[in-house]
Every structure is written in structure tokens, then in C-alpha cells.
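Continuing the series of single-chain predictions for the mutant panel. This is the parent chain; the variants come on the following pages.
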Amino acid sequence: MRRISDPARATNVVYLIGTLGDTIIAIPALRAIREQWPDSSLLLLYNSDEDGRVTARDVLDGTGLVDEFLPYNSKRYLTESFRILRFLRRRKIDEVIYLAPSLRPHRAVLRDLWFFRLSGARRLAGFGPLEKTRRHEGEARLHRLQLSGIPIGEQARAIPLLQPTAQALNTVSTWLGACRAESRRPMIAIGPGSQMASKHWPIERFAELGRRLLANFPVDLVIVGGTAERQAGEVLKSGWGAGLNAAGQFSVPETAALLSQVDLLVTLDTGPMHLAAAVGTPCIALFSGIEVPGKWDPIGSGHIVIRKDVECAGCRLTVCPRADHPCMMLITVDDVWQAIQAKSAEWKGVCTV
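Parent structure:
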């Protein structure tokens, strides 16, 4: 439940940028902040550009990690900056905690620093150094908090990072009950989509994986993703002659509940991958070479990451300019199938024919 702001309580601002995956990898840092200031009102300043993407509020509302939400539209930078600055100065902010990505440009970090100084905040935390290293992005943010004197307790990294709500679990249970003929079968989720073309893997290869799974194990296949993956899900279902299409079907809390019920997620490097990891579901994740290896791997243990070494690694491009798209095309169906077989010992024992 959202807490009501109390004027007598000190207000701290947490600044967070990004969508689904960015928010989830920041949860350990948010836990540390909540533990450091249990009696303060934590106000989350986050981007919400009205483009249909998942926002931090979609993920965090109701978790108790923050008390208030203050969205801004980055496409209206000047007008939004003045609006937010006036709001923060009226609130008399005690501290600003900076959870921006490590790869944020230095010029933007300096601009943010001066902005929050103008807000009247008495102290600033988490501003540096923003490391361009192989450190996992979640760990990089925890490290910056430590450098600012904020301790990191044992529970900060504890899995699950998110607990599905009873309401979301009930919604998903009702849907599954109506769609599944055999509720005792293990469920394998397939995440075939990504907003970045440079992370795409051919839909035909996902189709082949599904055929192998259905031929070798008595399992139910569930396609997950947003509305953009809905059509791909229908194509896969039609080709398999089986499966459930949950893409675009559920809210973020309901998708978390669904992913908490599956035995394995086979996915690209996407927000649903981070959501599955957050609820403790193991992932087989197919990674492109656009980022530093390990920077955005799913949080927790029990995951298998498949990534190929290519000469153009680290390009950070959203669209691959090469016709052969080597970092993704070099990942074969056999590579992923071997990973699935390695994980199958964790769920095939409960299969029922």
C-alpha cells in the first residue's frame, strides 16, 4: 500500500532512470536505502515518457520500498526540470540518492549533480565514481552507495527480489486453469522478443526449440512478453500446435506471478528475464555482444547465460549494421538445447505423461 506523506517526516529523493530491467536490478540498492532511512519518506523521481514502456512505478508500487512517486517526461526537459525543481524546493529535501546507470555520460551526470544541488538537498549520495567496468550493474550501484557511507545489509541481495501479490497469483491461476489441460506438467516459458533489434534471435529457432521440448518432455510452453510479442506468440503456437500465449496478457505484477509459477524461462536479454530472476525463476538467457559481458546478467544463481565472443563486442548499438549479425546468429539451437537439457534435471522428474 502506498504510504501517505507526513510533513513531519524527512524526505529523501531517489533518482532512477530506465524501464523494467533497470528498475529490477536497482532493487538491492533500494532495499539498502530503505534500511538506512526506515523513518524517512522516500520519494522516487523516475522517467515516464508516455510511450507505453514499463515504468519504475509499475514495478515498485505496493512493494514498500518507496513511499511516493514523482514521474517526469524526459522529452520535455526544460519545462519538466522547472516543475520538478519547484516541487523539490517546496519539499525541503534532506538527501538525494543517485541510482542512474553507470554508463550515463559524464556531461549528464554533471548536469544532474547541479540540478540536485539547486533543489536545496542538504546531502547527495551515489554520484560517483560511475565506473565503466565489468562489475554487474546492480553491484555497481550498491558500490556507489557504500562509497557514500550507506551500508549494504545481508538482505539487500536476497532472492526473491519481488513477491507476487495474492491478487496477481489468483488472476494468473484462473487464467492457467482455463488454458491448461494438465496442471501437473512443468511449464517452460519462452521470451522471443526484445525492443532492441540488435538483441533479436530468429523466431524460427525459437520454433525449433519448442518442437524439441514438446517431442522430448511432457511440458506446457508459455510465450511471455509485451503486446509487441503477441503476434510472435501466435506464430509459435500455430507452428507447435500447442502452447499458451501470455504475451501482452498481463500487467507487470501479474507477469511476475506467472513467471514465479514456471520452471524455466528461455529468453533474450529483456525486462521479462530480469523479472523472472527477481521472483527466483531460473533463466537461460541469450545475450548479444552489445554490452560488457556480465553487466546485465540476470540477478541470482541458477541461470545460464549464452553469449558468443565477437570482434565487434561492446558496440552498444540498438540495430546491428552487419547483415550476418554475428553475436546472435552464432548462437545455435543446439547451444540452447544443451542448456535446456542441463537444467531439465530440476524439473523433468515431476513430469507426468
